[in-house]
Amino acid sequence: KRGRYDEALARAEAFTELFPESPLRADASKKKQQVLKERELALRKEVVSLWHSWAGRFAHDVARQPEPSLDAAIAWIDDGMSEAVLAAVTDELRRRVSPSVEPALVRRYWTERGQKGETVKARNATYGQGTWLLGEDEAQAGLKAEPPEGEKLQGGKSSERARLDERIKRYLANQAAVKKSKANADDEGELAKFWKEWTSQGRAQWILAYYAEKGGDMQVLNVRGTPCRDCNGEGVREVAGLIPASTQPGSGRGGQAQGSAGPGNGLVKCPTCHHVGIVRSVRYR
User: What share of the chain is helix, strand, coil (3-state, %, to 5)?
Assistant: First the structure.
């Protein structure tokens, strides 16, 4: 009951040695098996709790690096995070439960979580405003397209909505052409700048979401894409009074034409989601 399992086991074993003829030897043996069972249940429960706890702690540690780097964070998730979490959980269990705990046992209990009838709580992590760092294809992977809020309320597309969709289609086609003509170094610089200037909390949640979805340790229950609040999931924003780029050098991304929608109106890339249109989140356990 106090969680001192090793001491309880030692006492049960000592009894049979001290009193080899005692009729209570069977009770001592039964008690030993009970203690072993209770220790296993405690370890299984602690493994799950501590694994999630240490994953969050490591995510925050990496996010708070003096010189944060997206490439370095991804490389560490891919190559070292799982083993780091395993080592930390093992060390803590050795202090809290039993010095005899081995990494192989911790890994086994983690892999078997939820298979022995115990309840495993589902958790959530989000890529937040950094969803676009995944790239448009990965950000949208596994998601079901949902109509924007206006269509949900109206039950269909209005003529105005259809015209806007056509403008967006042309705009995105133009941006795709622009992107192909730009050097990769420009994109990489934009990614690095965003990651460095982003809040440590945002980076930590992104790292945790990436680890949960792609690290191989978590059971991914589902992924969800919530429409960007700034552009309602369109990936672009309509700006009134926008001067076409052909008459205003340097306007728009890379100084390329944004596409005039008519007198005084135009479309620009959503500065929040960077064309992706969603905030991706992961539900896992």
Answer: 60, 10, 30
